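Chapter review: from sequence to fold.
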Amino acid sequence: MTTSVSKKMRLFGLQHLDRIPQIRQLSEEQIFATRVVASVLPFRVNNYVLDELIDWSNIPRDPIFQLTFMQKDMLEPKHFSRMADLIKAKAPKHEINQAANEIRLELNPHPAGQLSANVPEMNNQSVPGVQHKYRETCLVFPSSGQTCFSYCTFCFRWPQFVGLQDFKFTTDEANQFLNYIEQKKEITDILVTGGDPLIMSASRLSAYLEPLLRPEFDHVRSIRLGTKVLGYWPYRFITDRDADELLRLFQKLADSGKHLAFMAHFNHPRELETDAVQQAVSRLRNTGLQIRTQSPILKHINDDPEVWSSMWQKQVEMGMIPYYMFVERDTGPRQYFEIPLVRTWRLYQRAIQKVSGLARTVRGPSMSCLPGKVCVEGIAEINSQKLFVLSMLQGRNPDWVKRPFFAAYDESAVWLDDLRPAFGEKEFFFEAELQKLLRKDAGQSTPKAPALENRRLSS
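The token string follows.
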């Protein structure tokens, strides 16, 4: 393997679109569409993605181009036309921002009860920058980690990046999250997420992680870092100024006896091919941490079983553990990326058949929805009735986990709220209890919303 040349990161946002060296390879129509969509959804790309990942001879079909550059159909036609007309008319910035915010609020900015059901309280006050949906696992959103090396066009956390202050998760200066974790002894796993926590300096990240080594946090057995850094800026661990300091921090955490897990987002095997990412993975593994990989399945990017099987196989060869295949979440530009659950499961089945048992650690296809992580286990036929077989990999009530349940077969369904219970049942087994849990969390005496987020077929 050759040694990576030191590279300084250059970031390009909407205001820097004309400065992207390769932008001249796009048509005027494509550039304008990018401007329109990026006025609503977040856009950022860096020079590593531009220079080493995107195949500029295959635009616009290139999967990494689709992953990072806005496409016209990522907005509904009515929303695109509204923004395009304002931009063509050179409307004042405040009018464009107002229209953008109104469109954003129509894009389900925080699905699965993230604002209403996942934010815990302590002393009758919400704990800033924390989500606690599952008993053992607590999510922490560091205030300095609420941006990324590049923005994924599909990202379900897009509200963190577009200025919707009421929809942001971020810790406060007092770091109340530590007091909360200390009190909740059932918490065994901390997931530090964002944004991307690896955007922080080593010293700033250390300020979040090293306190967890104190005796009062002995109940915390695993620390996870949710990050896209290996896909978007592997030089973070090779030639960045504090790369060695960062690796020493990871080694200290791994040597402490706690499990340190790197939850790496790879959406396409292209991201595994550069010398830089291979060196970065090797250096990370030498610290004692473990790298697990995950991605949603996405139309235009990786909706091909060969893409997944080759990606999983390469990850195993590099010493990583394939972990999750997600279903694209019901937020933002989901209509551009979504795939019917029938096809999603068939893609998963065809991909998993092509790899050995070492890569069959992948769980999915999984929907991170209101009751929990619902997995499509397969399609079955019972009494001549075709059905989806479902189960939960995680649940708001742990007793729901791995209890099989069934939904009527529906070739157009793309999310749990599109499905009806099978066998003429009125609701899925967990829905009545879910209502009670949500009322308890909200302090309500009567339900204000259906148990599932928006069952489109309920009428």
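Two observations follow directly from the output. Residues 11-104 form one domain. The mean pLDDT is 90.
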